[in-house]
């Protein structure tokens, strides 16, 4: 497929949704997510000749997209609210009784961005892959054990600071 | 499934804009027309670094000048190799930075 622009367009159509969703989980901003997804597709196109066809194409595609998102976010720090502050605000809003279910979910997803990078990445990939640890590890290029440990610590932090929104601690994966 | 799992598994990502595929394909075609990236001179860099290292080690471990003898390797050569290695690394990093 390397060099075949027509075939590649079909591939972009097929995977535009998942790749944009992955990028959105990292940056929580639609325009930026599309920029990141576009950059990932261009990178995939330019590297198609290097893809050896081992394993699933989607595994490789998500690994490339993950690398693009991580490296871009590392270079440009997006504004985030500290976890402690998010937890406090969520607590006030709950007491006032004006936190809808959808807003509560948004609070939690925004809080993921405030986590230390390694925990954020593990959580983003684990849930993007519908709680499949192996796929998350493949996308991150890390051993499953490492991802599991990052996931555990990241979830622990979220539960500590957002206990009012997500309830108590539960077993991970 | 805990409430945290439920919230984080669900996606609130909006669907890509209608023009997304066209924008990606325009970028892909533009990348096709762009000149090939400059090859990284790994061999040259490795050779320079090895030479600089060797010179440094020789200068440190070679016969000293306690008896008034000249150092094993002239310190000017060591300095020149160090500058060469540093400039090589700097130019590589600059090219990478500009390319990104």
Task: Label this structure with key terms.
heterodimer; A: 173 residues; mainly alpha; Rna Polymerase Sigma Factor, Chain: A; Arc Repressor Mutant, subunit A; 2 domains; disordered C terminus; B: 100 residues; 4 helices; 66% helix; 0% strand
For the record, what CATH class of the largest domain in chain A applies? Mainly Alpha
* Number of separate structural domains of chain A: 2
Q: What's the domain count of chain B?
A: 1
Main sheet characteristics of chain A: none
What distance lies between the first and last C-alpha atoms of chain A, to the nearest angstrom? 37 Å
Q: Sum up the overall morphology of chain B in one term.
A: elongated
User: What percent of residues of chain A adopt helix (DSSP H or I)?
Assistant: over 70%
Q: Mean of residue pLDDT of chain B?
A: 75
Describe what you observe in this structure.
The complex is a heterodimer of chains A (173) and B (100). Chain A is mainly alpha-helical and 173 residues long. Chain A folds into 2 domains: 5-75, RNA polymerase sigma factor, region 2, helix turn helix motif (Rna Polymerase Sigma Factor, Chain: A); 83-166, Arc Repressor Mutant, subunit A. Chain A has 9 helices and no strands. The longest helix of chain A has 23 residues, at 5-27. Chain A is elongated and about 60 Å long. Mean pLDDT of chain A is 84; it is low at 169-173. Chain B has one domain (3-99). The relative contact order of chain B is 0.10. Chain B has helices at residues 3-9, 20-33, 42-61, 75-99. Chain B is built from 4 helices and no strands. Chain B is an all-alpha fold. Chain A binds chain B through residues 5, 8-9, 12-13, 16-17, 20-21, 24-25, 30, 33-34, 37-38, 41-42, 45-46, 104-106, 108-109, 112, 123, 127, 130-131, 155, 158-159, 165-167, 170, and chain B through 2-5, 7-17, 20-21, 23-25, 27-29, 31-32.
